[in-house]
Amino acid sequence: xxEAEAPSQFQASFGxxxxxxxxxxAQAPGRVNLLGEHTDYQGGYVLPAAIPQQATVSVAxxxxxxxxxxxxxxxxxxxxxxxxxxxxFAPYLTGSVALAGVHDALDIWVSSEVPSGGLSSSAALExxxxxxxxxxxxxxxxxxxxxxxxxxxxxxxVGVMCGIMDQMASSLADTAHMLFLDTRSLExxxxxxxxxxxxxxxxxxxxxxxxxxxxxxSGYNERRSQVEEASLLLGVTQLRDVQEVAALDALPERLKQxxxxxxxxxxxxxxxxxxxxxxxxxxxxxSHASLQHDYEVSHPQVxxxxxxxxxxxGVYGARMTGAGFGGAVVALVQAGQAGAVAEAVLxxxxxxxxxxxx
Length: 358
Ligand code: GLA
Hints:
- By secondary structure, the chain is α+β, with helices and mostly antiparallel strands.
- It contains ten helices and 14 strands.
- It has two domains: 8-182, Ribosomal Protein S5, domain 2 (2-Layer Sandwich), CATH 3.30.230; 193-357, Alpha-Beta Plaits (2-Layer Sandwich), CATH 3.30.70.
- Helix content is 41%, strand content 23%.
- Strand 9 and strand 10 (200-201) form a beta hairpin.
- It is globular and about 60 Å long.
- The site of alpha-D-galactopyranose (GLA) has 10 residues, from helix 5.
């Protein structure tokens, strides 16, 4: 789909559901996190990039007392009274509307290309909705404000106590750079993708493992409270403030393991800022091992896929990406090799695996 086709296509789809065109249409991308996993709720560092897949949201005021919300992916329309939250996909939209301070009844049409499972499909939906509302009401909100509102939608309306990485990435990242973000200060910098002096800029390959994420929410919240307990025991505000693994020695074994992941992952991100593709890839491999053994948020089938990628010629490194418990994996591969790598690895992996980026 080209930019030029997009508006008329969305106009027509909106029209088919609501009988007239939308007032605004906005989009926001999903993200893939290259390094810095499970660090953003402890003030740490992350390195995500946007993926080409976007969520699209079209909005028009309807003059009534109910929002009418249509998901093209689900083929479902929900009616939710203004001021109520609703269920299913509604909270992402009604939460965004409420936090944007909008009191009108709206017709909202949403469609998303962002695969679910580790690529921030929810943040993309929140950010596309908030961008549409910002445009429709000329809201004086910058891109960081929108990301912070998106995170509040998760906390207050969806019930997921996520960090800020996904919303910041959806709001501020692009597909050609990594967004180096300090999740405590929100200071950020766009960096070129890792390169290899012989082969040039590396490619990002994302494969969906086909493993549906189970227990992701409860596992996520459990990890979050474990590292909060660890920082409390260590007397620091956040594990971001711990640099030495030796400082974790006094912790009970399980908490020590969890904290060690966060501390070493922060160090890996800082090291990656100056790394060429080969070095960056080794840091990704180390990140996966840490997520698998210390943080225990991977999945046996995901580990198989990651190991296949790590062994494949043309791959600098590979790891799970996102919250884990199934979902997507990311590999850094030599320029021009992504397609061949994906084909070779998926032939052996089989199952429900599929290439989703590039
Ligand atoms: C989810 C959360 C993020 C982050 C990652 C793990 O995507 O939404 O805030 O914690 O998991 O790095």
